[in-house]
Amino acid sequence: MTNLETNKHDPNRSDRQPRKKLKSKRKRWVPILVVLLLLLGGAGAYAAFLYAKFDQTLNKIAAPSGNDAEAIPVATNPITFLLLGIDDRGDGETLNSDTAMAISLNPITKSATVVSIPRDMEITFDGRSRKANYVFAHNYIVDKEKAFPKTKDFWSSKLGIPVDYMVTIDLEGFRKVVDVLGGVDVNVKMDMCYRDSSDEDGTNINLKAGQQHLDGPKALDYIRYRKSNCGTKESNDHDRNLRQQEVMNQLFGKLKSFNIITKVNDILDVAGDNIKTDVPSDTLKQMILSYMNIEREKIRFISLDGDWISPFVVIPNEDWENAKKALKIERMRTEANPNPTLDSKTPTGTDMKSNYRSSGNMR
């Protein structure tokens, strides 16, 4: 019998060959499994680090959680909060709000309505005509500790619904968030130019019309631009609000993307240094969990367009009433009745009377 024939019929040789291949494959998989375990262990450690950082950041920006009998169950009850973008680049004493938005959130329908309030909108405060951005700045200068509740009281009366909470973000923080998220893509509709040579402000806006990718400083210029001192067309509060909503919507989309996981640490750093709120930390966690999966298509943006009657923007009463109505209706939505009318049951959430402590005469 030939060697070839012996090999074919030798059961011992045919059995040994696969075992050698199996051992070889096992040896190749060992380092791969080790690497995977290390990666998983590292991911677990990173996740634990981020969770601790997240908790630490919330405690830094939020109000202390306590045994507050009036705490709102935000996971089930609609709320309204006031978001102010604060320009604190000067002497730190003016704190005029460059951006103001009233936002109603509904956890049942996972939807939101955002009303941009023009900074120059005429209001009546303590019997005098003032601009909308005067309210928080005045309250802060008079009494820092009462600035949040007094500002909420004012806008609760003005909007006809309880403003449950308030959030301020320094515009420097906005700039940093845009940079962390890789910038925004916008279509600049006109040339924008404004130069301020003062040491306190130092604003230097110079944007060209057309499709642009903007970093943090340029995005801040884009949403703030109003006046020009170098020959370009000026903007107004209505157009500024539209640009602010455009950028906010894009940033919201970036925050929901998969790539955000690598940037969470940097975002938390920015948030901790630039955001303040009177939402208790435990409630803030519930809010984030309740709305983290909200779809952009379920966020309605409303911008108010008024008449410029120097030095104010005067909003037509009908437009203001429609904006108030939209915020109220958002609080009333349910799965069974996603499009209620104001004839429906009183909005759920906090008792509407609870926040109606007047801070002055309202226009």
What does this molecule look like?
Helix content is about 45%, strand content about 20%. It is of the alpha+beta class. It folds into two domains: about 15-60; about 60-330, Aminopeptidase, CATH 3.40.630. A hairpin with an 8-residue loop joins strand 8 (about 190-195) and strand 9 (about 205). Helix 2 (about 10-60) packs parallel to helix 8 (about 265-275) and helix 5 (about 170-180) packs across helix 6. It starts with a helix and ends in a 31-residue tail after the last helix. Pfam families: LytR_cpsA_psr. InterPro entries: LytR/CpsA/Psr_CW_biosynth, LytR_CpsA_psr.
How do the helices and strands line up, and which of them pair or pack?
Blueprint (H helix, E strand, L loop, with lengths): L2 H7 L1 H51 L17 E8 L10 E10 L4 E6 L5 E4 L2 E4 L2 H9 L4 H13 L5 E6 H10 L3 E5 L3 E4 L8 E4 L2 E5 L1 H9 L12 H19 L8 H11 E3 L3 H11 L7 E5 L3 E3 L2 E3 L2 H16 L31
Parallel strand pairs: 1-6, 3-12
Antiparallel strand pairs: 1-2, 2-3, 4-5, 6-11, 7-10, 8-9, 13-14
Helix pairs in contact: 2-8, 3-4, 5-6, 5-8, 6-7
Keywords: Membrane, Transmembrane, Transmembrane helix
Family: Belongs to the LytR/CpsA/Psr (LCP) family.
Pfam family, one: LytR_cpsA_psr
What is the distance, rounded to the nearest whole angstrom, between the alpha carbons of the first and last residues? 111 Å
Oligomer: single chain
Strand element count: 14
How would you sum up the global shape? Answer: globular
Judged by helices, strands and strand pairing, the structural class is: alpha+beta
